[in-house]
Amino acid sequence: MSMVRHRAASVRVLTGLLVTATLFTAGCSGDSDDAGKPTRTPRPVNTTTTQTYDGPTALTVDVSDMSFSPADATIKVGETVTWEFDDKAPHNVQGIGDKAMGINSPIIKKGEWSYTFTQPGTYRYLCTLHPDMRGTITVE
Ligand code: CO
């Protein structure tokens, strides 16, 4: 009995590997334009480690009591905003819309995260865990 069960499990594993290998081959052969180029590395899932931090914080936004404070603020181009997280619940800062896409913090319970605004405009953001938590940074 135990031998049979073992063999069945092995077959399942082999099948899984075969499917994976087939998908991988298909993906590569479809990229004829990249045939002579080195293998592309996968895009990192979390890009927050490349976040720019150019200078001293011009504005601190407290993330506590389930809200951003101040919720609305104005800064100058090139200035850095630091969100200080200190709440019982974890939160994040996620920009709304294409222009604010780079505003993308990890989920933090206690700590801080900074973002330097290099283009003028109005940037809306929210906490994706609590979409009622919203804020706006206006960059002049
Ligand atoms: Co939240």
Protein architecture, described:
A hairpin with a 2-residue loop joins strand 1 and strand 2. The protein is globular, with a radius of gyration of 23 Å. The relative contact order is 0.17. It has a four-stranded mixed beta sheet, with no helix packed on it. A four-stranded mixed beta sheet has the order 3-8-7-5, with no helix packed on it. The protein has one helix spanning 2-29; strands spanning 57-64, 67-69, 72-75, 80-91, 94-95, 108-116, 121-127, 130-139. With 140 residues, the chain is of the alpha/beta class. It has a single domain (39-139), classed as Immunoglobulin-like. It has one helix and eight strands; from the N terminus they run H-E-E-E-E-E-E-E-E. Residues 91, 127, 129-130, 133 line the site of cobalt (II) ion (CO).
In short, what is this structure?
This protein has a single domain, classed as Cupredoxins -  blue copper proteins (Immunoglobulin-like, Sandwich). The chain is 20% helix and 39% strand.
